[in-house]
Amino acid sequence: MVIASIDMKDGHVVQLKNGKDLVLQRDDADSLISEFNKYGEVAVIDLDQALRNTDEKGNTKNTELLKHLLRRGNVRVGGGIRDVKKARELISLGAEKVIIGSAAWNANPKPGESILNVEFLEELNKTIGKQRVIISVDAIGGKIAVKGWTETVDISLIEGAKEAEKYCSELLFTCVEKEGCMQGTDMDSVRALRQAVKCRVVAAGGVNSLEQIVELEKMGCDVQLGMALYTGVVSLKDAFIGCLDFEKAGGLIPVIAQSPSGEVLMLGFANKEAFEKSFETGRLTFFSRTKNRLWTKGEESHHYLDLIKMRVDCDRDTVLATVFPNGGVCHTGSYTCFGSEPDAKSNLERLYATVAERFANP
Fold first, then answer.
1. What predicted TM-score, i.e. pTM, was given to this entire model?
2. What is the CATH number of domain 2-242?
């Protein structure tokens, strides 16, 4: 999975070099998350929280923007999450996962003490669930970096990762020396990390080419993109398609289309060109084996499937597409190819759409 990052500072979207030097600044967070969410989860990072640039209520200049973005996509949140109350609040506001950095680590363990803040992590797991917790194993010189990457603790990357995976579903590794430098990430460290742990690993920091993204994916790692994405060196469309295992799938990837509420609508197959057209036009397109050509669903009936987002499975050989159907999906006229009557969009479906719209646009 390719994860796009939205880093926020002083109410703006920014990209920093080595976590310090401002390289670019933007003010189009809403359009960014709408685009990024088509391809995968989005990491939203409050850099001011990480650096404790907060007011007396613990808010930053990014707080309201963050709350808005949580309603706009599948978001994992990081930056200055130091207590269970804050993590629980973010989950209640719509975050799917929280990224825990400095708060996970015991910077000065006494003899016999854990290198982790075990009491905090255990309470966090109990409150929001281990599956919602991501722990950062950011590194400088092979040591775990904390406090907004301003300090390191005497814990090696691999030692820290092995302990941390007991309390999370994913590890986020950022090579701080490579962050924002567009020089490629530390592949040796990523490889060692992947071999050392069983949980999901997300690699970030310096990724600068489609080839490196594909290599990381083949290694079994997800990839988080920042500078390479904002500077146009890598496109999310190319990254998403490049990580699909077409060879394993015989050249055609099964695509399951579902409604926004999760009702399965149809199954089709897509090659690289079909995925490209789906992303470019915003309408779900397949490769028709009977017509032997690209086929946009609805091109005859005008019952198009407007693309909301795509998600790839763990083996990278099946895709789930969330779409908005403009009429019956089945050639029989039924709402779904799996048995409903014509125009049988349920009351629950309509209620879901109304509630979702009001959450997104209160």
1. 0.88
2. 3.20.20.70
